Amino acid sequence: MATGLKQRGRADFNFLADLARWSGMSLQGAAEEDFDRLIDTDTLPEGVQSQIRAVTKVMEAESKVYQWDRFYTRFCAEQQFRSALLAYEDGEAEILAEYEKYADQGGTLHLNPDVEAPSYWSETEFHLAPGGWEGHPRMGFMIHDYVYDLIFSTGGVGAVRAGEKFTDARVTTARGGLKDHYDDILSLGVGTGRSAVSIQEVYPDARITGVELGRTELEHAKVVAARHGHEWELYQAAAENLPFEDDSFDLVTAFILFHEVPVPAAKQILAEAYRVCRPGGEVLIGDVAPYKDQASLFRCMVLDWETEHREEPFWRGSLLADRPGLVSAAGFEQVEEFGASYPWVTRGVKPSR
Ligand SMILES: C[S@@+](CC[C@H](N)C(=O)[O-])C[C@H]1O[C@@H](n2cnc3c(N)ncnc32)[C@H](O)[C@@H]1O
Fold it and tell me: 124 C-alpha to center of ligand 1: Å?
């Protein structure tokens, strides 16, 4: 992997990863003890949303360690992109040489400069990335090879607990299919191809197609495919308006896409997933577990913070929504959900005709 990393980038990323891990483990652990001491669960209002609001107010006012944990989490989120931009400047020649090296490998990119990106996507700076998903000509590279690999790798950010690995959640989701083999798999919101690598690991013979709105991410997904010796078909398109015939895929997957879209868009995406899925085929969604399935109210409060403080505006709506209900309403049957806090898997089957 060509990162062109120099000393300042290496030092910055090590520091941020250590800070995220320490804060996620030590400070959050201590904050949970404060929570147990300060919150009287018998006096809380009805409904998880009201309860989260009530306990957040108490913890923000009374728990010093919770205040510090949130401060460091926000600081890491802001700083990671500043550090990434500087590290990229140092390594650009090496990074672009890798793009060049893989120009003829990794499959086919179907870019569409006229793609109609929904405003919830184009107007949000997800995870505080300056300018959003397209805020830099190589944002895909920076998110994939710096932020995911060098900072998130030790956990302690968002739904990934300190000490956990992002990649494990992707593989667990991919293994959630009912069958051992699929011919054609569609990855919605394929991003930089991280989940597609896990899908291909679990189903090595499958043909993989990815759909993604971001150009820089798709370009990087092709490099990622090439690094692993895979060949994917990668389309720049909106998941709610797929450029495929009906009944094209026997598995339609989406890993951590749904918490980044508003519920009405989720309904449209599921309708499209149903249309392009073959009869007898499956939809497989991996995401953060809804609040009702989280281990504790403390954990719900920590996760809910993302909505307003780390530029995840659709997080709360998605974690309050009835995901299996949405999958059933799209027409899928045998809808099941299972997993842990992260990933939480929702699966459905398109009825055979
Ligand atoms: C959190 S990322 C996950 C990427 C990838 N699945 C992974 O595991 O790393 C969500 C991705 O979905 C893409 N996305 C969001 N809304 C979309 C939409 N309506 N159509 C296509 N892609 C979308 C985003 O650009 C982003 O790359």
Answer: 13
For 125, other C-beta atoms within 10 Å of its C-beta total 13
Ligand 1 atom index nearest CA of 133: 25
| Residue 195 in contact with ligand 1 by CB distance below 6 A | yes
**Helices 166-174/194-202 angle, 10° precision:** 50
Residue from 110, 119, 121 to probe ligand 1 pocket by mutation (most atoms less than 8 Å from CB): 121
- d(CA 329, CA 271) in angstroms, rounded, equals 9
DSSP 160: B
Q: What is the DSSP string of 166-203?
A: HHHHHHHHHTTSSSS--SEEEEET-TTSHHHHHHHHHS
User: pLDDT truncated to tens, each residue of the chain (353 aa)?
Assistant: 688 899 999 999 999 999 988 999 999 999 999 999 999 999 999 999 999 999 999 999 999 999 999 999 999 999 999 999 999 999 999 999 999 999 999 999 999 999 999 999 999 999 899 999 889 999 988 888 888 888 877 777 778 777 777 778 889 999 999 999 999 999 999 999 999 999 999 999 999 999 999 999 999 999 999 999 999 999 999 999 999 999 999 999 999 999 999 999 999 999 999 999 999 999 999 999 999 999 999 999 999 999 999 999 999 999 999 999 999 999 999 999 999 878 999 999 999 97
Tell me the CA–centroid distance for residue 213 and ligand 1, in Å.
7
